[in-house]
Amino acid sequence: MIVLGDKEYYKGIGKINFEGKDSDNPLAFRYYNPEQIVAGKTMREHFKFAVAYWHSFGGNGADLFGQATHNFSWNEFREPIQAAKNRADAAFEFISKMGFDYFCFHDYDLVQEGQNFTQSELRLLTMTDYLKEKKAVSGIKVLWGTANCSSNPRYMNGAATNPDFKVVARAAAQVKLALDATIALDGENYVFWGAREGYLSLLNTDMKRELDHMGEFLSKARDYARQQGFKGNFLIEPKPMEPSKHQYDFDCATAIGFLREYGLDKDFKINVEVNHATLAQHTFQHELQVAAMSGMLGSIDANRGDYQNGWDTAQFPNNIQEVTEAMLVFLKAGGLQGGGVNFDAKIRRNSTDVEDIFLAHIGGADVFARALLAADKIITSSPYESLRQQRYSSFDSGKGKEFEEGKLNFKDLYDIAIENGELELQSGKQELFENIINRHI
Question: What are the pLDDT digits (tens) for 424-439?
Answer without folding.
Answer: 999 999 999 999 999 9
